[in-house]
Amino acid sequence: MESTSSADEGWAYENVEATEDYYEEDFKDVQSSGEPIPNMERKLIKEANLSYEVNELDSTQFQIEQAVKEYGGYISSEERYFSYDRENISVTARIPVKHFEDFLSASTAGVEEFENRTISAQDVTEEYVDVEARIKTKKEVEQQYITLLDKAQNVTEIMEIERELGYIREEIESAEGRLKFLANSSAYSTIHLTAFKIVEVPSKYSTKFSNSFNAGWDGFVMLFVGLTALWPFFIVGTITFFIIRAYRRKKKKMTKA
Q: Are residues 188 and 176 both part of a single domain?
């Protein structure tokens, strides 16, 4: 695992040792059964997570998309978004594992320094061979149950055999699903690229001033709205005032007379 490192240092792998012996095609390993794994191409699940700063996001996005097309991959997700002081593009690409290193070099060409760079490779060859062997064994057992089913003498035997067949077929389906996952994961590597551009952040004081101005204006508007809601009281009060005033004048005239 690496972080904040130069692009010139090359790509290193986590979980496997990148040596000439490791990449030898003619290798042997031991399964749980004690039998050697036959000569075959290693199944590697490769993954990379890279983040880096750029000057222009549009050209960077185009560069990544062109590299994906050039090396026969596809984009599984793509997002453009803003964070506090950054504008970001995030791309997840699936690339044929044989073009893993070439794609990394092409998609990040011109990048001098990575904020984060994590690259890993997991060897699943032994698990792949083991799952294949288990599928073969379970299918042989399945065939034996089918043969027994043809020889069943009564309903009870038929039901018991069919129940066992159901268990075996579930296990076969589960193992085939796992095998398919390993095959797909080792055929296409997964690469997460996040490129970002630093953007100007407003001063905290200008933000506070703007917020205060907005709050003051909102307060004024709410006061006006509140006063407007009291218009019936103003009308009643005005009428009452003139009635009292007229009554006092009339009373005053009567007193003088």
A: no
What's the total number of domains in the chain? 3
Three-class SS state of 15: coil
Beta-bridge mates of residue 30: 36
Domain with 73 in it: 7-125+183-198
* DSSP SS3 for 46: strand
Instruction: Name the residue type at position 31.
Output: Q
pLDDT digits (tens, 9 = 90+) for 56-109: 999 999 999 999 999 999 999 999 999 888 999 999 999 999 999 999 999 999
Least confident of 90-99, 141-150, 178-187, 237-246: 237-246
Q: Are residues 23 and 97 in the same domain?
A: yes
One domain, residues 31 and 94: yes
> Are residue 93 and residue 149 in the same domain, yes or no?
no
Distance CA 222, CA 256 (A): 50
CB of 50 closer than 8 Å to CB of 192: yes
Which carries the bigger pLDDT value, residue 74 or residue 248?
74
Domain presence at residue 108: yes
Measured between alpha carbons, how far is 88 from 81 in angstroms, rounded to an integer?
5
**What is the largest distance, in Å, between two alpha-carbon atoms of the chain?**
134
Overall pTM > 0.70 = no
Output the CA angle 30-33-38, nearest 5 degrees.
Answer: 45
| Cα–Cα–Cα angle for 105, 67, 114, rounded to 5 degrees | 40
- Domain annotation covers residue 2: no
249 and 160, same structural domain?
no
